[in-house]
Design brief:
The chain has helices at about 5-10, 30-35, 60-65, 80-95, 135-150, 170, 180-185, and strands at about 15-20, 40-45, 50, 70-75, 105, 130-135. The protein has two domains: about 5-75, Alpha-Beta Plaits (2-Layer Sandwich), CATH 3.30.70; about 80-185, no CATH class. Helices cover about 30% and strands about 15% of the residues. With about 200 residues, it is α+β, with helices and mostly antiparallel strands. It has a two-stranded antiparallel ribbon with strand order 1-4. The protein has a two-stranded antiparallel ribbon with strand order 2-3. A hairpin with a 4-residue loop joins strand 2 (about 40-45) and strand 3. The longest helix is centred in the middle third of the chain and has 16 residues, at about 80-95.
Amino acid sequence: MGCAPRRGKLSQHSTVKPEINPEICLGCGLCLRWCAFGAIRIKPGEDKAWIDNSLCAGCGECILACPEEAVKLYWNESVAHVQEKMVEHLYGLLKNREGRVAFLNFITQVSPACDCYPCSDTPIVGDIGILASTDPIAIDQASVDLVQQAEGNRDSLLPHNLAPGEDKFRALYPEADWSIQLRYGEELGIGSRVYQLIKI
C-alpha cells in the first residue's frame, strides 16, 4: 500500500472510510492536525468535526488521534477484498519491471497496529533482522514465518499465542486472515510462498 500514489491509496480504501460521531466529538481539532489530506473540518457554529470523503484517503490516522474515540472505521466490504486490492496495486507496480526491483523487510519494532498510525506500542516480538529478496511474496512469507517462530513479548498488546510457532497476527486480529495477500499474490504470478532463507 505504501508504494501506491495518492490515487491508488484512495482506490484501495475506497469503500473503507472513517466517520465521526457528532454526539461524541468535542471539536478539539486534534484529528484536523493529524489528517495529511486536509479532509477533516470543523462545522461552523457547531464545533463538531466532519470528514470530506472526496478528500479522505481512508488511512485511519484520525481514528488514533481522537482522544474521545469519536472516529470509527465502518467496513462495508470484506477485509479480504481490501487485501486483494492491495495485491492488485502491487501487481500493477511490478508489471514490466521484472528483475529491476528488490525488496527489503526490516523486521524490527514489530508494532501491534498498522505502521501508518502516528504512534506505536510495545513490539509484539523482539527485533529479528533484515531480509532481502527479489520476490515480494517470498520475502513477506519468510517475514511472517520468522515472527511466528519468535517468542511473543508478554509486555505487548499480544493477548495470547505467545509461544514460538503460534500465530501472533491472528491473536491480535482474529477477523483478518493475513495469508490472503500472499495466496492471491502467488495466484497472480507475482512470486512464490516457497523460499530458501540464507543467513548472512
